[in-house]
Request: fold
Amino acid sequence: MTALTLAGVSHAYFGRTILDRVKLDVLAGQLVALVGPSGCGKSTLVHIAAGLIEPQRGRVVSGYRRHGMIFQEPRLLPWATVEDNIAYPLRLSGAPKRERQERARHAADVVSLDRRDLEKYPIELSGGMRQRTAIARALVLEPDFVFFDEPFTALDVALKRRMQDLVISSAVQSRFAGLFVTHDLAEAVRVADRIVVLDERVRGISGERFVPLERGERDDSSVFATVQSYLKDDPLFSHIHDTDERRRP
Amino acid sequence: MAVFCAIWQQGHEAYGDFILPSPIATAHATLELVRAPETWRLAWATSSRAVEGFFLVAVLGGAMGLAVGYSAAAMRLARPLLTIIMGVPPIAWIVLAMIWFGSTSGTVLATVVVACFPLVFATVAEATATRDRALEDMARAFGAGPLQRLSTIVIRSVAGQYFPALAISLGSAFKVAVMAELLANINGIGIALAMARSNLDVAQSIAWIVLTVAAIFIVEYGLVQPIRAELERWRDAARPWGVKR
Reply:
């Protein structure tokens, strides 16, 4: 069953075409990583898929029931406590206060946020705790699809790892499908089932690979080996790191 | 306050009773005023006009500021108009309002609204136009419609700048109300000040000023600041001495 279909999606900024007739299917329960050099339209594509940007051409067909989203920055409401931030999507859907509280606490447990921190304001939290809150907020609706827009780029290496583990374990637990934008190939190999490479020269998808081994069964050496073999031997990934943003019009 | 009173006392000793009565004499005059029922009637008349005008400004300025802040075109149209309104001195508005409304409460109200509206309006419009769109995108990603975004994000983030503007315009609402009463001969603190002036009773003039300031204090710390403190609690949380609730 397909959770998400992008059918011939095109988009341009100021007359410069970024995406040209992109086709992509994401199966239910499948985590797809979008990789590519910066400026190739990864974020734009995921924003279009999430309904934040109207594509100039093409259609987005969603087969999932509910989605959540995690951005590069946590994007928490500064004036609301951690608990209220996590419960924000429930508030939008009009859930009663009791239910909001219960489900927010449950989501906080899933991402291992301390109960004592629920009363704090985002400004009192560290960067990692804020991103945890943002993940809990995305999971509180129990979505069957999650959009990740470079969610861990701003975190340090150890924290990034912990967050990736969090995504892997919660994806196993609640079996959501997802679109995961990243420019870190190792992150893509760790987290995703399938890697889709975007390329600005073809203004869309230049190819895709299924990651060997099941999610969660990959250890550090197998992730490293896979990344190395992609970068050294696979022509699909040869352009993934060459980008010069200065030469762009 | 003590330093202020000390300097005041020095001034009194240098220039004598007539130019600057001593703080004690002023305190006596104030006490006398407070005891007289007529004072309360006048103070109430002025305060109710000022507060009425203030509420009009708070509602009109807030609503129109939000509406204009949402539209870049309206913002560009509104800016020169604001400059014109702000450029006209309040005293000129009083003269115009006297011609239009005569010596009535309407004159005071109109002057207060015209004098305080631009600040509140411009602050809200600016705050709305420069709001955090990343938060709004987040809300959209979780399915919030335009009205939900307005009520859960835009209004809440604009409030942070709205309340300081209200605190400032509250002060000027009282000042302008007293001035309009004085010039347009309307019953209130303004006219009492005019009488004190014509009797050359400086102590009483200052006593009236003290009462006006007291009225501003009551409205500001009884109404505006508590709401603001509630909205800004999260900011205090970040301070090293952060005490939350």
Observations:
- Chain B has one domain: 41-232.
- The interface with chain A takes residues 134-135, 137-144, 148, 152-153, 156-157, 231, 233-235, 237-238, 242 of chain B (CB under 8 Å).
- The two ends of chain B are 29 Å apart (CA to CA).
